[in-house]
């Protein structure tokens, strides 16, 4: 019984702390009057976004949060050659 009360207490504390579900932030967003700007950004590819947007009065656009991220540094390739 104590174990069940402990688990219930922990669950209530997490709920009260405002634990929100993880939000997907992918490269493509549906932008329309329902979602606003930047829109529903839960699509990895433009094709996925377009299939979901078909029949709506909206369009697919790039996620501004993804576009404005700085580019990753280039990966080092090949073998290391010491200077002469």
What's a concise summary of this model?
Helices cover 32% and strands 14% of the residues. It is built from three helices and three strands.
Structure characterization notes:
The model has no long low-confidence stretch (mean pLDDT 76). A three-stranded antiparallel beta sheet has the order 2-1-3. The protein is built from three helices and three strands; from the N terminus they run αββαβα. The relative contact order is 0.16. The chain is α+β, with helices and mostly antiparallel strands.
Radius of gyration: 22 Å
- Sheet with most strands: 3 strands, antiparallel
Percentage of residues in DSSP E strands: 5-15%
Q: Give the beta-strand count.
A: 3
Order of strands, widest sheet: 2-1-3
Q: Separation of termini?
A: 74 Å
What kind of oligomer do you see?
A: single chain
Give the SSE layout.
Blueprint: H1 2-16, E1 28-31, E2 40-43, H2 46-53, E3 59-62, H3 64-67
Core attributes:
single chain, 84 residues, alpha+beta, 3-stranded antiparallel sheet, 3 helices
């Amino acid at each position: 019984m104590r174990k069940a009360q402990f688990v219930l207490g922990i669950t209530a504390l997490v709920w009260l702390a405002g634990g929100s579900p993880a939000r997907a932030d992918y490269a493509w967003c549906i932008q329309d009057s329902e979602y606003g700007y930047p829109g529903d950004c839960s699509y990895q590819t433009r094709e996925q976004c377009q299939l979901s947007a078909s029949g709506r009065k909206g369009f697919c656009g790039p996620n501004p949060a993804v576009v404005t991220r700085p580019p990753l540094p280039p990966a080092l390739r090949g073998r290391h050659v010491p200077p002469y």
